[in-house]
Amino acid sequence: MTLPLETIIGLEVHAQMSTRTKMFCGCDNDAFGKAANTTICPICTGHPGTLPTPNEEAIRTAIRTSLALGCTIRKECHFDRKHYFYPDLPYGFQISQYDFPLAEHGELKFDIHNHSGNILHESTCRITRLHMENDAGKLTHRGSTTLCDYNRAGTPLMEIVTEPDLRSAQEAVAFAQELRRILIALDASQADMFKGMMRFDASISLRENGTEKLNPRSEIKNLNSFKSLEKALQYEEKRLVALWKECKGPLPHNITVGWLDDEEKTKILREKEEAQDYRYFPEPDIPPLYFSQKDIDEIKSRLPSLPRERQQQYISLGLNEKQAQQLIDQPKLCVMFDAVYKKTNDAKRAASLVLTQLLGFLNTQEKSVHDGPDATALLELIEQIDNGTISAHAGKEVLEAMTQTGKSASVLIEEKGLRQISDDRIIDDLVQKAIQENPKAVGAYKNGKKQALGAIVGWVMKKSKGQANPEKVNAILKKELQQ
Ligand SMILES: [Zn+2]
After folding, report:
1. How remote is the CA of residue 372 from the centroid of ligand 1, in Å?
2. Which residue, 118, 136, 235, 409, shows the most beta carbons closer than 10 Å to its own?
3. Reported pTM
């Protein structure tokens, strides 16, 4: 009898660190979009006789990330050479960390959501280790020619390896999304998948439900979006289930496969690959790194609050789960919400302004949050509403124009002539005219039909093109009609 099968998934995540310079030299680490081979030097291109110098900023970034993932920082860590040949790897080896990694034994908690964005349940995945290494260059194939760009060579990477704790493609994606939020919140990586700043290798195997032993796995290499991570795992899971039925059991040995994005299927790259194939040995040019508890505690004390913690804070302010999620998914929205909330002490108003109005206008124009106004610009708009310069209604119009033009609230208020009329004499005149022009409504109001007042106020608002301060119109009109 065969038991139902259980899917076992583990991830290796590569994240490019947001440092100013590369891992072992002073070259610019922001090479994306720059002309090929312009951000390189003899060190990152592996010239003989050059020496690598570890980047302190990168080490601190990796420690910060490790601590946020609940890892223990080793008191001593080493760099090692991992040998393989590929034309984009000028050293002939990668400088990585093998048996003395920077950090180990962490844990990441994340939420599983339903389709409408509500939290279904919490899940946990243990982190095996986090280590530092440098990236390789990039090859571009054009017909029979291959071009090599070393700009990316030497870029500092963190490799985050999980235990095989994930049980479905959906869980793997939810884990990866939470990890990405943390990397961004820590300012450890921009984790821009389009630029290849966050990439995944996913290992998947099957076992009979209730059994403990791990079977040989299929490792899917180089997935560079959440979508391909999910699709590749779903595809490989189906394939392994079919193979299990056919062969009455698991894979005979580990395999490495690639994901073909266009064809939406995997392809076998290598059978059996073991660590000894890389002939790891200690990097002789970089001495071991030692960390004191004092250094680690100091870095720990300065960690920002993490996304799930912030999500809870937003929910406790009265936001729903989806709104809180929207905020933590985009740190720029968080900054704006926090600024508006601090000024107004009104979470509902801040959520409506940032998530409903601002995001709504940006989405209609197919723009990203980064194309829209910043927190300072929003605060200026609020100031203009709160000091009575414009009405809340006009505020919406101004915000829409801010997203379209990038101009400030005060400039747009003048350009559009939206300044609210609060001058008593002007409003008084308008009210007198309204009384003369609307005898029926005035009569009805005096006979006790209180709602007739609305029609008269409406007339004033129309005459003033919406610029009269409605509260003042109301007050003055009531006073006049009582006489
Ligand atoms: Zn360099």
Report:
1. 35
2. 409
3. 0.81
Distance CA 290, CA 292 (A): 7
Q: What is the mean pLDDT of each run of 10 residues along the chain (483 residues)?
A: 82 96 94 89 92 95 97 95 90 92 96 82 96 94 92 96 96 96 93 92 93 92 94 95 88 90 87 74 93 93 92 92 88 90 92 93 89 91 88 88 90 83 82 90 87 88 82 86 78
Ion ligand 1 — residues with CB < 5 Å: 25, 27, 41, 43-44
Q: Cα separation of 161 and 425, whole Å?
A: 72
Ligand 1 centroid to Cα of residue 283, in Å, is 18
pLDDT at 322: 87
Work out the end-to-end distance of the chain between its first and last CA atoms, rounded to an integer number of angstroms. Answer: 94
Give residue for tokens 């010239």. Answer: 47
Rounded to whole angstroms, the Cα distance separating 428 from 143 reads: 79
Give the residue extent of every domain in the chain: 5-298, 305-416, 424-482
Q: Which amino acid would we find at residue 426?
A: I
Which pairs from 435-438 meet CB under 8 Å and 24+ separation? 435/477, 435/480, 435/481
Choose which CATH entry (1.10.1740.10, 1.20.1730.10, 3.60.21.10, 1.10.10.410) describes domain 424-482: 1.10.10.410
For residue 408, give the 3-state DSSP assignment: coil
Structural contact between residues 77 and 102, judged by C-beta atoms closer than 8 angstroms: yes
Q: What is the pLDDT of residue 3?
A: 61
Tell me how far CA of residue 19 lies from CA of 36, 132, 152, 185, in angstroms: 20, 13, 13, 15
What's the CA-to-centroid distance between 182 and ligand 1, angstroms? 28
